[in-house]
Amino acid sequence: WAVAVNIFFITAATVAWALALREIFGEKKRLLYPLAILSLSPLFMPITLWWASAIQVFPLATFMGLGVYFTARYVLRGHRWVDLLAVVGVYVIGLLFWQKSLLILIPIAFVGVMLTQGRTIAAVKDLRILLASLTLVVVIYVPIYLYLTRDGDASNTKLLQQRGVVESISFYIAGILDVVLPSFLGGPWTAVDNPAQRFGGSPGVRTLFFVLLAVGGTVLALKFRRRAWIPITMAIVYIVVAWGLVFTSTRYDILGQY
Hints:
Number of helices: 12
Distance between the termini: 26 Å
Structural class: mainly alpha
Shape: globular
Largest sheet: none
Order of helices and strands: HHHHHHHHHHHH
């Protein structure tokens, strides 16, 4: 049953993001590329091998995609209440699966601002009902979660552990060079056969190619797309927050970097 549930949520995540991308960009064949990365990326292999992790990560991807989808509908179709309720409902259901679904708020907020006409401050004001509703969910959820988990979990996980500056920089650089950048071209390519195994580092020449490709793509996007800074900033914020929660957790000391 664990395999069936994981396959269901892997499929659901792909469908959810297909709906979201189509709502934002229209029906375009090139959208198949990010969907292929999402559904076939080796990044998800360790997660799939560990079903207890998969039952958290893939629902997160599913409800994040649905959250972005209904946010796009809310912005592009005239702030309909049905779409607002759908965004809030998806957010709440996602939180029932995993507390890290709180991070869904990041892409929802950035995508909402990106699709709203006008300056950033005006866009935030235009989204005030949506953002206020989701903030209310966070305000209600966090105290309840902290109360219910006040005795800790089975592994006595602790968050926000102090880390050194050099160690922190090394963690993020290694993650970006060895995991994030290769993933855009179908990597990482290191085979893994257990959930705790790490992805190996890329050869120097390949890493240099990835860096040049990423920098060049970013420069071109900022030059030719007026609002490209919004999704770029969204990705940076999400990586800093999501990875930071892992990096400063005591589980990082046990499970390792990836």
